[in-house]
Amino acid sequence: RTQSLIRFGQCGNQVGCRFWDLALREHAHVNKKGIYDEALSSFFQNAVLVDMEEGVLSEVLQGPLRQLFSTTQLISDVSGSGNNWAVGHHSYGSVYREQIVDQVRRAAEQCDCLQCFFIIHSMGGGTGSGLGTRVLKLLEDEFPEVCRLVTAVYPSAEDDVITSPYNSVLAMRELTEHADCVLPIENQSLVDIVSKIQHMAHTGKPGSVIKKDSTIISGQGGVAKTEKPFDAMNNIVANLLLNITSSARFEGSLNMDLNEIAMNLVPFPRLHYLVSSLTPLYTLADVNIPTRRLDQMFTDAFSKDHQLMRADPKHNLYLACALMLRGNVQLSDLRRNIERLRPTLSFVQWNTEGWKTGLCSVPPVGHTHSLLALANNTCVKPSFMELRERFVRLYRKKAHLHHYLGVDGMDVSGFSEALSSLTGLIDQYSQLDSTNTAPSQDPPRLNIAC
Amino acid sequence: MSVVTVQLGQCGNQIGPELFSTVYEDSTGAGRKTYQESSRERFFWETSDGVLVARSVLVDMEPKVISQAVAKASKSGKWRYGEKAHFCQKQGSGNNWANGYCVHGPRHKESVEDLVRREVERCDRLAGIFAMMSVAGGTGSGVGTFVTQCLRDMYPQAFILNHLTWPYGTGEVIVQNYNSVLTLSRLYQLSDALVVHENDTVHKICSRLMNIKHISIGDINKVIAHQLGSVLQPAYTGDSPSNYSRNPIGELLSSLVCHPEYKLLSLCNIPQMSHTSLAYSAYTWPGLLKHLRQMLIANARMEEGAFKDPALYVPWLPPDGTFSLWNSPVPFNGYEKSASLVSNSQSLLKPLDNMVRKAWNMFVSRAYMHQYTKFGISEDDFLDSFTTLEQIISSYSHL
């Protein structure tokens, strides 16, 4: 049972590299005999790497992971997409369409059973965002029954790419319509998390020293020897992917696989944006973890400081929530914490006990246990509204529009439709929020003649 | 008389091996030859090399749990699963009943039927088929329902007993109530009886009675296996007072399921305690039975022979049809004395009602409907299921 990983653009490929590196490290930890065990090998065969300029991909080919990939798995061009979604989506989309589909098909045929496509890209650029979403549509057409899970990195407001709001909103429309599940990540959140950890590591209080090296942000022990900037942030995203796939790679008493995530967390087709949080983000020097610390982990998972997006699920409305627990943690710990936290959270009226839970026995490297929380929650609304604001500010002035409209296949309706798609999505979240204020009574039951 | 077990989905394939281990250990420690023979015959067959093989078919839509079950049994060196007795796929059912019932079930119908047929034909006499599954997920519930239907078609005269594990009320799977409703409504017509264990109840047994601090899924499964074992192991019954019963499932059904409207059975078993306390306890029969009756109806007045009290039972059953006593001279599973009560009563009414209420709430908002309709289960199918269950709830309420 395998997943195919397709990485687009600079972001996607860099995160992807961290993922492979950390995955290797995780499996090496578990499988002392060799680093290439069966579960992991299926991941590597099935990767397709796409970028429209050479820099990042050639690093992969020259880097320490180069033996894991063959050149056929990499598809690239030379000049890049110039941070232009239309170039990525329409121009390169048409040129490389067949090659990409072929490569994916070849990877798919290698799988005993293809369960899911994992797609990673940023939203603000041109290749990841444009070509990535074009391929998303292709995957839906060619492999309609295979789940499409997208990890999308959203730009921060201070992003240096001026047109990132255009690229993001144009891409979002595709994600809303063609992805099964999207995990939005915001660069700003990753920056905040990394700086907080580094701050803690440097100003540690006695008795609670943070181990600098075995943190979620460090790739130490992995194959790549030197760490580059952005590595720390990319490591976090890679860890997210490791946690989501842990049930597929290791055993556990309550398995939770990707199809189950897509099923349980998506009550309505378009509302499939899931906020993720990871704990712990650092390892404490003391190894004995009393129960109190375990419970703290659960509390942290719901705090806004641990979300990979600027969002506060605790103070908004949950449609559904999934918890994946890894390590030597028992069922009773899980149940106790759900009962403890449940009264502090708001769930939509028709899903008051909407928890999906999973237990995997193998923890991440350097930790005795970890928790991943995925929330379908209206807290995404403010981020989406902010994005729409930034889009509208540019669009109103028709700034930079000509770069896009000059591309074959792109016209103004693309922009207006993308905008109304985003507006519609925001409205759906607003409607749900409004149900939260009304006092809830159970709807009348079915009446049967006795 | 042999029982063929069908283990379905993760839950069925986790409890199944615990059940076989329990009955194996119990029959080994017994020291009574006839008990051991009868129990072995019921659950295992023997190869020419003297290896005990479980009379079981393992079905799942992903391989990990079955591999673990098979490996664990082999490692024990005491019994194992048949080499070709399992069927699995790779992709799982995604907690989607419709995927299990409409896609996986039909796709693999022949393979599963072949496996069951082989086990059934191996039995000299079939006591019945025991299907084990959860109702919350996708395979146990969806594929399990489909398989039960096939079994009913294949063996219209056989006794089919379904063991169902109901999930924690505070959620293990978000769509668990949908999956449960779809399962229960159909199984009710297909199965002869539904033996139910609720995770919430078993969890309380582990924490309060057995004092387990960190309860794992293994702990839950062991308790369930213990309770099932106490009922399914050989016993002297009303019909067979001096030999171990040759028709255990049939007798169970005739004493408990007197009317097709009422098929929900719950189990309780005492004592349940941690192993450390076991050595220090002594029980008397009147004490145990008093306790059991207490568990059956809270606040009742206790007397000797308490179970014969007509006030406990519905007026439309003849008095000797209401209560049957089975016993066995052999101690069960390490307890010097133990007693189990299998009852067809209102004890499951509240959990059932809660389940239906939550499923209905979700249905009214049409949440998750697209996940089911894409595999072929329509809103009308849901409505039919709700109707069936409201009927069952109504019947039990009016007792």
TrEMBL record, chain A:
Select a single GO molecular function from the record's annotations and give it: GTP binding
Q: Name one GO cellular component term.
A: microtubule
Q: Which residues form the Tubulin/FtsZ 2-layer sandwich domain?
A: 254-389
Where does it localize?
Cytoplasm, Cytoskeleton
Q: Which CDD domains match?
A: epsilon_tubulin
Gene3D superfamilies in UniProt? Helix hairpin bin (1.10.287.600), Tubulin/FtsZ, GTPase domain (3.40.50.1440)
Keyword set, alphabetical order:
Cytoplasm, Cytoskeleton, GTP-binding, Microtubule, Nucleotide-binding
User: Is Cytoplasm there in the keyword field?
Assistant: yes
InterPro entries membership: Epsilon_tubulin, Tub_FtsZ_C, Tubulin, Tubulin/FtsZ_2-layer-sand-dom, Tubulin/FtsZ_GTPase_sf, Tubulin_C, Tubulin_CS, Tubulin_FtsZ_GTPase
Major localization listed first in the record, in broad terms: cytoplasm
Q: Which GO terms describe its biological process?
A: microtubule-based process
Domain Tubulin/FtsZ GTPase intervals:
32-252
Q: What is this protein called?
A: Tubulin epsilon 1
Q: Which organism is it from?
A: Astyanax mexicanus (Blind cave fish)
TrEMBL record, chain B:
GO (cellular component) term, any one: cilium
> Where is this protein localized, as stated in its record?
Cell projection, Cilium; Cytoplasm, Cytoskeleton, Microtubule organizing center, Centrosome, Centriole; Nucleus
* Matches recorded under Pfam families: Tubulin
Question: Mind telling me which SUPFAM superfamilies this protein's record contains?
Answer: Tubulin C-terminal domain-like, Tubulin nucleotide-binding domain-like
Listed A to Z, the keywords are: Cell projection, Cilium biogenesis/degradation, Cytoplasm, Cytoskeleton, GTP-binding, Microtubule, Nucleotide-binding, Nucleus
What biological processes does GO assign it?
cell projection organization; microtubule-based process
Q: Where is the Tubulin/FtsZ GTPase domain?
A: 40-240
Q: Which domain of life is it from?
A: Eukaryota
* Main location group: other
InterPro entries per record:
Delta_tubulin, Tub_FtsZ_C, Tubulin, Tubulin/FtsZ_GTPase_sf, Tubulin_CS, Tubulin_FtsZ_GTPase
PANTHER family per the UniProt record, alphabetical: TUBULIN
Tell me the protein family, please: Belongs to the tubulin family.
Its biological purpose is as follows: Acts as a positive regulator of hedgehog signaling and regulates ciliary function.
Name of the protein in question: Tubulin delta chain
Supply the source organism's classification: Eukaryota, Metazoa, Chordata, Craniata, Vertebrata
